[in-house]
Amino acid sequence: MASAVSAQATAPALPGLLNEDDLNNIQIEADEPASSQSDSTFGDDVESYTTSLKSSITNYRYENGRRYHAYKDGSYFLPNDEDESDRLDLFHHIMSLRCGGELHLAPIGDNPQRILDVGTGTGIWAIDMGDKYPSAEVLGNDLSPIQPSLVPPNVKFEVDDIENEWIYGSKFDYIHCRYLAGALKDWPRLMQQAYKFTKPGGWVEFQDFDMIFYTANGEFTRGCALDRWTRGVIEGIQKFGLEPEPGPKLEGWVKDAGFENVHHRLLPIPVGQWPKDKKLKEIGALDLVQFLDGLEGITLRVFTIARGWSAEEIQVFLADVRKDLKNPRLQAQHNFHVVYAQKPLNSA
């Protein structure tokens, strides 16, 4: 493994493709430095030709003590076990908090009729939307049948690969797609299918990430363990033929698909309790927890299969990554992108 660079190394450049407003948005004010003691203790239709829930789908694969989906095995790098489901539910809470407590930012009105949640994961967003909008039929799809069976009567789930051709009997008022970094090969095609199955005047919303960490005013440096881990994950995901960082590309893809009235919000997310702002401090604390909880699951398949590391090498490396994650002096943050747009009223 390469050794970390010295603390005197040049800090990484802030993420590219940002305009002046974006650069202002990423400036998170840090709180007063905590004591060294406290620094180290935190964190110790819908009938379609899609695939139904059959026993073959739940014949899961197990690797290095973690469980992975069986349907389209290998097309997704994260586990689908209970530990990962808990992390995804926590991430749902983090992303909702970062969006001001809202489940969505698109102005879909008070009575949407049909909602599609693409890559629903544990189904928690779809369930919350079913509760919030009793007028709507909410459909969630995913590679893994890990969603609960007790759900609101207007919520349904199906197992499907969203990169297959979509087959639905009618279009949707609103299509939602969140946190699919590292899950798709062909994002422009996904946008085209979303356009096809959105009603004229309906809305789509995509929420996703840059994986690279950076800092505006902290001690995070290019080449530290946290930076090397992130770049290693990106490299591994790319070897799978997947897109690791869709966030900054979402706006362009949405426009290319034909949507109009496009809105893009850049929302930096801190890691740890270092921000001064109370809400960002809470978000940062939760983000630290989900990274610490998910670090092994995020790393194992990518580093063993795509990079040829042993499980033992990974555990040694992750010890240093955890130290960086827990260090508030780094003031590490990463970018969350929300893009929502409307299908033209005069479209088919």
Automatic annotation (TrEMBL):
<dbReference type="Pfam" id="PF13489">
    <property type="entry name" value="Methyltransf_23"/>
</dbReference>
<dbReference type="InterPro" id="IPR029063">
    <property type="entry name" value="SAM-dependent_MTases_sf"/>
</dbReference>
<protein>
    <submittedName>
        <fullName>S-adenosyl-L-methionine-dependent methyltransferase</fullName>
    </submittedName>
</protein>
<dbReference type="GO" id="GO:0008168">
    <property type="term" value="F:methyltransferase activity"/>
</dbReference>
<keyword id="KW-0808">Transferase</keyword>
<keyword id="KW-0489">Methyltransferase</keyword>
<dbReference type="GO" id="GO:0032259">
    <property type="term" value="P:methylation"/>
</dbReference>
